[in-house]
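Please go through the sequence and fold tokens given here and tell me how the chain folds. Record follows.
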Amino acid sequence: MFKKILIANRGEIALRIIRTCKEMGIKTVAVYSTADKDSLPVRFADEAVCIGPAVSAKSYLSIPNIIAAAEITNADAIHPGYGFLSENEKFSKICQQHGIKFIGALPDQIARMGDKATAKATMIAAGVPCIPGSKGLLADLEDAFKQAKEIVYPVIMKATAGGGGKGMRIVWKEEDLEAAWNSARQEAAAAFGNDGIYMEKYIEEPRHIEIQIAGDQFGNACHLSERDCSIQRRHQKLVEETPSPFMTDELRERMGEAAIKATKAVNYEGVGTVEFLVDKHRNFYFMEMNTRIQVEHTITEEVINFDLIKEQIKIAAGHPISGKNYYPQMHAIQCRINAEDPYNDFRPSPGLITSYHSPGGHGVRLDTHAYAGYTIPPNYDSMISKLIVVAQTRDEAILKMKRALDEYVIEGIKTTIPFHQKLMDNEDFKNGNFTTKFMETFEY
């Protein structure tokens, strides 16, 4: 086992990792920028090293500075957390070259899953369902008709140089294809100077459901069930829960098997997540594989009583996993509490926290680095905390979350607590009736 781990991150995830290390008898090193000199990870780590100014490129993203900090403190491993360098192939490789264990995926695994085309080809070869689509750009209208018939309607045509929805058309039936083809090409040409179009299966009423996985150095792999991350805004997750209210036992088995296939296809080492889009007919399609710990790993931990950070560290140290698949025994929900104004288009609200009171009670967990007198810096992600509740049923979990949100006091800055309070009262949310499009019509 490692003697000393450097945490190449900040905020709540750095503190989360420090806690598990201490419980394992492992010494810790916190690295910090000048903006984070008064943070809790710096206070609670065994050692702390300043690695640069507030700007991320010169501190938390500076590989030379982080490696130097590891060497001067004699750290034998680095935990990257999530974000920053956690999925950086170069960083993983440099750690290897310096004889420091990177607690995460190997460089080739990060590279293969980081490139979308390579990841999709790898998954298709492994028998993991992927979104059907044209192989490259459509040659002409005749090719569009042929591809649509093979993919099966509804289909979506997308501009290869697209963005902002320009050059994108959903086609529900064959007789509408020609008009959509012509208008998509014209719009793409006008917007981007490129009328190239490709086609994919249109996913109806999609849900974002991910499967937590683990793999070791001996070729073993298992899954730790699912998380529903469909409540999101501009592709940023706001609320996560497990089990998914949309899940069935049969679908969970099929998605779990597919996630294990994906894990074994790259000989994955560590904990990670296989993300899927699931349509209203419960067909699921591979989206991507995250080769790191997730922000929402907490809810999985709560429903199966399992420390995923500890598992990460053990795998990196060469320990085998149990190989057993895990299934949720309770229901957990996580709300991301951000320093943002939900009534002003979620505009960031950094600044001094003048008053702070944490919620508590049975089944309530709060992962945070904030406290009264702490200043949320403007330089990084606006997350203040992750509020997690666990209960016997989903209805009970929602009521517990409402109670916990009511107890949570953060003054001096704007936060997303009022948004989450409204969400917990929303009938569609309470009934589990939502998709990734939910925030487009949600009023608060």
In short: The radius of gyration is 23 Å.
